[in-house]
From TrEMBL:
It catalyses: 2 GTP = 3',3'-c-di-GMP + 2 diphosphate. It comes from Chitinimonas taiwanensis DSM 18899. Coiled coil: none annotated. It comes from the Bacteria. CDD domains: GGDEF (cd01949). This is diguanylate cyclase. It is an enzyme of class 2 (transferase).
Amino acid sequence: MRPADSEHLYQRRAYVLAQTFFIKDNQQELILLAHKYDFDMLFFDQMVDFQQAVLVADEDDLLVVDLDVLYSLQTADGNRTLFLRDLFKQLPANRDYVYLQTEKQSGRFLLQQMLVESNCLAYAEKPIANDKLVDKLFNLFAQARRNMAGKVMLVGLQQVFDLAILQERRIQVIEHHELQSLQREVRRLQPDIVVISEAQYRRTESIVRILKRNLEADPNLEVMLLMESSDEALARRAVADGFDSLIMHKASDVLSRQLINRLGKIRLARDLISRDRATGLLNKIGFQQAASELIKQAEQAGKPLGLAVIDIDKFKTINDTWGHYFGDIVIKRLSLHLSSHMRAEDLLSRFGGEEFVMLFWDCELQDMIKRLDGMRIGFNALVFEVAPGQDKQFSFSGGAAAFPALRSENELFLHADAQLYKAKQAGRNRIVG
């Protein structure tokens, strides 16, 4: 019951070389779980097929090798079972692999050493529950996005970090020296990390408490103290005051890479919290944070905004008739359809279930309704194969609201939601603004 273009439904893939356990017992469940996390799993039990697949795999795809294949595969001459080094030689070079091993294998340090020195992205120990394996693979997909842009604010620091290294990772560096405006600027610019010099902290020890105890502060903000001395008493006070971490002054390139590693973990954790795992879109928390910031920018720039709430028509009937798995496919295809119509400066989110919320930058109400109507008509045209030889098409309804007529994200959402209700009452498959 997958749609005809299902090969394009999931943005990423995990290619799995395995001959026992996963292939025989867990393949279907693993695939279903992976689809929930917006990736697909393709299984191979022959090295030659896996080799060919790796050669055409995208850079962001994961390559998974169950080390039990060592006991099933033979060398080219067919005289003996593969050893680990033989396996490495057969795997295409210049790619990293996720290795699955048994508890006995994981207890051999030399084996782990050989793995991490030979194109090992990660390894895990079997037996491992299907849902946990899929969750860990999803986290690896998310970690691959660690080079995404971030913001770091330096307070009382100059020429400490290697700016070239940070700029290469698209990390924005903001230098700030005015304590009176620090709290306001942190709230306005929303950096991921604030690094405070030891000298600045000595002058104003309440600085981190001022940043952390503001209810409007980002709870994910990490505040670091750059220590110039080995003053243990000062370090104790800093930890007690609320610094998340203390880092010692080192060479600028070392400090910069240390900052990049920390920023990567922060961005990963934030992404996991703010995104819907089934579609990869912003979830309710992520949308509300991003929308509030966009509304502030629109107010400063004098730009109009449009917010829309859409809902798949008769979605409960879809689930009841063809099952929740098929309902997930409808949601996924709608998310991809909507994404293709969004500009880089717009926001698209899945609030839960079959409900999606969008925010359009620099867009008047009538223009937004016209865009939404085009999306609606396009979705109506998508064909879903619900059974062999049986196709169905579905629809959605939507409600719209405009800024600055309505000022806050909450006001915009409530009005658009009320308009959505009118669309449903008027017969569905329409947009009401």
